[in-house]
C-alpha cells in the first residue's frame, strides 16, 4: 500500500454496472434490505431477499472474505436451528425426531427467520465491500463536503484491521520459514499470536503515523487543496438517495406501527 493509496487510489479494471452506483446509495440499500428483513416474519420474503443478495454478489464479484463470512454465518445458523429447535420457549408441535430427539416446528421457524436476517445482512454488506474501494469512499466523502481530516480518520479506521492482518501474515510466514512456531494446532496458533500482539499493534499504528506525515508533506492537508475527483460516473444519485431514504422511513414506520398495534 502506497502513501497516497488511501485517498488517491485509482480503481482497477474496466468500469462495471455497480461503479455507477454511489457509496451512499449502496449503504442505503443495505439499510433497506436489513429493515425489510427485520420488519417481516414471512419466510418467502426472507428467501427473496437472500436470493437478491446472492444475485448482487454473483453479478458483481465474490471475495474470499465474503465466502468466509458466509461459511461462519451458516455454521452459526445451524447452531441456532439445533438450539431453538430443542429449547425454544414456545415449542409445542413436534416436526420430526432424530434418534429419539424431538425438534419442534416453532423453534425451527424462529431460528430460520433469525438466520435469514443474518444472511441478508452478510450478503448486502458483502456486496458493498467487494464493489466499493476505500479510496472511492474517501473521494466521494470529500466531494460531498467532509473535511480532509475527517475523511482521513474514517479511512484510517477502515485500514487498521487489514493492516494488522497483513502484518500478522508476514510475521507468521517468517516464523514458519525459520522453523519457529509450526502452528499445527489451535493452541500453537494462539501461542504464536500472543508474543507478537503488542509489537504488531505498535507497528500498525506507526505505519498509520508515517502515512499521515507523508500525506501532509505532499500537501493533502492544505485547506486550499482541491478535492480528489472520482473517475466513476454515478447515475441517478439524487433519485436513489430520496427513494431509498423514503423506503427506509416507511419500513421503520411499519415496524413501529406493528409493535404499537401488538401492545394495544
Characterization of the model:
With 264 residues, the chain is mainly alpha-helical. The chain has 10 helices and 2 strands. The chain has helices at residues 5-8, 23-39, 43-58, 64-87, 105-131, 134-143, 148-177, 186-193, 197-217, 237-263; strands at residues 94-98, 101-104. It has a two-stranded antiparallel ribbon with strand order 1-2. Helix 2 packs antiparallel against helix 5 and helix 3 runs parallel beside helix 5. The radius of gyration is 23 Å and the shape is flat.
Give the overall form: flat
Please give the share of residues in helix: 55-70%
Overall structural class, as computed from helix and strand content, comes to mainly alpha
Oligomer: single chain
Main sheet, how many strands, which sense, barrel?
2 strands, antiparallel
Instruction: Walk across the major sheet and give the strand order.
Output: 1-2
Our measurement of the CA-to-CA distance between the termini, rounded to an integer number of angstroms, reads 57 Å
Strand content: under 5%
Could you tell me the radius of gyration in angstroms?
Answer: 23 Å
Can you write the helix and strand succession as a string?
A: HHHHEEHHHHHH
